Amino acid sequence: MEKCRIIAYVITLLSLLCSSAADDPYRFITWNVTYGDIWPLGIKQQGILINGQFPGPQIEAVTNDNLIINVHNSLPEPFLISWNGLLQRRNSWEDGVYGTNCPIPPGSNFTYILQVKDQIGSYFYFPSLAFHKAAGGFGGIRILSRPLIPVPFDPPAGDFTLLVGDWYKANHTDLKSTLDNGQMLPFPDGLLINGRGQYGNTFTVDQGKTYRFRISNVGLMNCVNVRFQGHKMLLVEVEGSHTLQNTYSALDVCLGQSYSVLVTADQPPSDYYIVTSTRFTNPVLTMTAILHYSNSAGRPIDPPPGGPTIEIDWSLNQARSIRWNLTASGPRPNPQGSYHYGLINTSRTIRLANSAGSINGKQRYAVNSVSFNSADTPLKLADYYKIGGVFSLGSIPDNPTFGGMYLQTSVMAANFRDYVEIIFENYEDVVQSWHIDGYAFWVVGMDGGPWRSASRNGYNLRDAVSRCTVQVYPKSWTAIYMPLDNVGMWNIRSENWERQYLGQQFYLRVYSPANSWRDEYPIPKNALLCGRASGRKTRPL
């Protein structure tokens, strides 16, 4: 009966919203989120399981699919899931971060209604509250092209997901307490590949065939490097963009980033190491899995292949080599290069500088000196119901102040259909990784030293890759172009989860005065209400 009610509600809602064409299919998914014992590094921990799995189930979709995901929270505390890289067109109501959504209470459920509108590629989901990400609850998202849309490579013999990232042996509650007490986290204890430690994963391939590996860094603190012993990687896709098909023997994947590579089993039949190791760290953490030929004649040959460690220029040059494939079709049949992003004048420049420091004797991180302080009500709800005193537009400046850090519920105002230039400026000695919800952007430039107006002379205005997460190297800058074509309240955050938790994030409120369903969907009928929005009405069907 409950499932019938959900189906009836979803079909009615989506038909009213006209959110999808009649031939866009629905995929109904039910998840139960629980705690369970896991031993990823040989030590018993309290992990977050989805349907009993760690990592959680993979989401399989095709462009324009409607995903109806009913999440039952069986944890003893509130819970939210967010969708790294899904654009949520006109629909920040479903973004799954605290600035847009009330948490799912313990023992309750919430049905996310998503459409992967005009998207392809490799992404992941993760829990966004209370440092839950350090306990699991993450999984891969795979969006395939529609059958009639050409893909710029032959269908692979298999499609694998690699969820890599650093990990702590301590329970997430202990890590959260450390941060709440104003202290920094220690160095991670190890790396995981698909939730497992050393030699915990085996990927079986047939000699002579080519396989797709979708690699996402779901870790907390560090970039990683990935390599396949004796094999090359052909890069074909980055966060929904088909790329120029460059070949790499080692690939850097920073926090929150996703890449697709093709690996051909063209070596003598044997087993080979798949290696991931931390970048820009001392010591260097390493973890291995096995690439197993189905006709293998033996074990991998030791030692596992080494990779880059602290070399920044090596990584910078590789990042610059990742370019858009201008002739390939994306989610639509028109070539990716048909949108000439470099010929459009930007209407606004936003410069964002990260910083670290102390506020009231506790460790904090900031953007343009503002350390984000969560409100008692989700910002999207406060905006919709016009609840005063929750946040103020313009509470974060467009440019670095280089002044003292302070706490604020920081929201930047922006206008629908503006075309903005954003420069991420990193004056610290550690690599930064930035993500913007609800958007993909063109990475037009990155370099060492301070950004200047003259830096624009070196921008790539032809074939910069479009993605949703980008790294900024130490004492360096990265510039992006972004059309503000998605109305809503959108989180801009550090993908370093300590820094995000302690304030290195803010919200971008993209506003359209039209107040039209053409620009933004109305509040969902099933929206959870909390804080100062409690007791209000959503809307009738």
Describe the protein's architecture and organization.
This protein has 541 residues and is mostly beta strands. It is 9% helix and 38% strand. The chain has helices spanning 2-17, 172-180, 312-321, 379-384, 497-501; strands at residues 26-38, 45-50, 59-62, 66-73, 81-84, 109-115, 121-127, 139-144, 158-167, 190-193, 202-205, 210-217, 224-228, 233-238, 241-242, 247-248, 251-253, 258-264, 271-278, 286-293, 348-359, 362-367, 370-372, 392-393, 406-408, 410-415, 419-426, 432-436, 441-448, 466-467, 469-472, 476-483, 488-494, 505-511. Strands 9, 10, 12, 14, 15, 16 and 18 form a seven-stranded mixed sheet that branches. Strands 22-21-27-32-29-30 form a six-stranded mixed sheet, with no helix packed on it. The longest helix is centred in the N-terminal third of the chain and has 16 residues, at 2-17. The protein starts with a helix and ends in a 30-residue tail after the last strand. Belongs to the multicopper oxidase family. This is L-ascorbate oxidase homolog. It comes from Vanilla planifolia (Vanilla). GO terms for molecular function: copper ion binding; oxidoreductase activity.
| SSE-based structural type | mainly beta
CATH names the topology of the largest domain as Immunoglobulin-like
Q: Please report the total strand number as a whole number.
A: 34
What is the CATH architecture descriptor of the largest domain?
Sandwich
Question: How is the biggest beta sheet arranged?
Answer: 7 strands, mixed
